[in-house]
Write a structure and sequence with these properties.
This protein is an alpha/beta fold. It contains ten helices and 18 strands. The protein has two domains: 195 residues, Rossmann fold; 116 residues, Rossmann fold (3-Layer(aba) Sandwich), CATH 3.40.50. The strands form five sheets. The chain has an eight-stranded mixed β-sheet with strand order 4-1-5-7-8-9-12-13. Strands 15-16-17-18 form a four-stranded parallel β-sheet, with helices on both faces. The mean pLDDT is 96. Bound molecules: asparagine. Keywords: Hydrolase.
């Protein structure tokens, strides 16, 4: 019988109706009690870590989750984390950076409807997550509505539907049909690896979504408060220089030692700053290219990289190096 650890952090899945809306209340064992059959198939031990709506997730809590897995790694065949959906994609990416060289599955799941409700997606999602946590595959994954998504590639696309999560610029790792798992690509045999934990972060990071008319002065404020800035530009990755000159501001930021990553507001296909003048004018030697990473991965990756170095060249190198399948071009 496979031995798994269930770590709980809160979210809708653990919520009850309170006087003021849904609040995470259920403890790990209470969640499992809704799925009595699971204990006959798997040996599951529980570890409650926190009980929060994931809207309240903080970067420091990612480290708590990663450490808990690291400390228990040798004693289990796989790990399941229950988590709210709102910031699940950020957490799955962050844990993918903090915990590397995994040769066992770390599976994050949650639900759109509490497990305590009559009609709920929670039971299916936990059953699927537990099933996938028994696989011989290493890495961090989100399992939701029968889809297995690489931890660095997920976004929450829908606020209410069961198929809330999508995999961006990367195929689903697998699909789950009851007890059957269908992989999108043949599984590579995993070599025994030495798990690595690195939870250091610099949280002085900002995310800016460009819009026509955005004030350059906004970046003066960020210069005083940030070590790293992610700019969600438009389309293939251009930065405006007419009228309100944002390009000039980004150059000022990098000159003062701040790391600037350019990505795109388009969800699919990533940036390609080679195509247009508005992209080519961006200084490719200093500005960090995000290629086809998604924002939910770029933000925690930048915090994680800045936790190691503030040297602009080194930050650029690390950010542009694929980790846990986060970049494929
Ligand atoms: N479906 C959910 O889990 C949403 C909830 N607000 C959370 O992220 O914790």
């Amino acid at each position: 019988m496979k031995k798994l650890m269930l770590l709980t952090t809160g979210g809708t899945i653990a919520s009850l109706e309170g006087d003021n809306g849904l609040v995470p209340e259920l403890e790990a064992d209470e969640i499992l009690s809704y799925l009595p059959g699971l204990n006959t198939l798997y040996h599951i031990e529980t570890k409650p870590l926190m009980n929060i709506d994931s809207t309240n997730m903080q970067p420091e809590y990612w480290g708590i989750i990663a450490k808990a897995i690291y400390e228990n790694y040798d004693n289990y065949d796989g790990f399941v984390i229950t988590h709210g959906t709102d910031t699940m994609a950020y957490s799955s990416a962050a844990i993918s950076y903090m915990l590397q060289s995994l040769d066992k599955p770390v599976v994050i799941t949650g639900s759109q409807i509490p497990i305590s409700f009559q009609k709920t997606d929670a039971k299916k999602n936990i059953s699927d997550a537990v099933r996938f946590a028994c696989e011989k595959i290493g890495g961090v994954f989100i399992v939701f509505d029968g889809r297995v998504i690489q931890g660095t590639r997920a976004i929450k696309l829908r606020t209410k539907s069961y198929d809330s999560f999508e995999s961006i610029n990367y195929p689903y790792v697998a699909s789950i049909y009851g007890n059957k798992i269908e992989y999108s690509n043949p599984l590579q045999t995993e070599k025994k690896k030495e798990i690595k934990l690195d939870t250091s972060l610099c949280t002085d990071v900002s995310l800016v979504k460009l819009f026509p008319g955005i004030k350059p002065e906004y970046f003066d404020f960020l210069k005083e408060h940030c070590q790293g800035i992610v700019v969600e530009s438009y389309g293939s990755g251009g930065i405006p220089f007419h009228g309100r000159n944002i390009l000039e501001k980004l150059n000022e930021l990098t000159e003062s030692g701040i790391s600037v990553v350019v990505t795109t507001q388009c969800l699919e296909e990533g940036e390609d700053m080679e195509i247009y003048e508005v992209g080519r004018k961006v200084n490719q030697n200093t500005i960090i290219r995000s290629r086809n990473m998604n924002t939910e991965a770029i933000v925690p990756k930048l915090m994680w990289v800045l936790g190691k170095t503030h040297d602009l060249k080194r930050v650029k190198e690390l950010m542009e190096t694929p980790i846990a399948n986060d970049i494929t071009i």
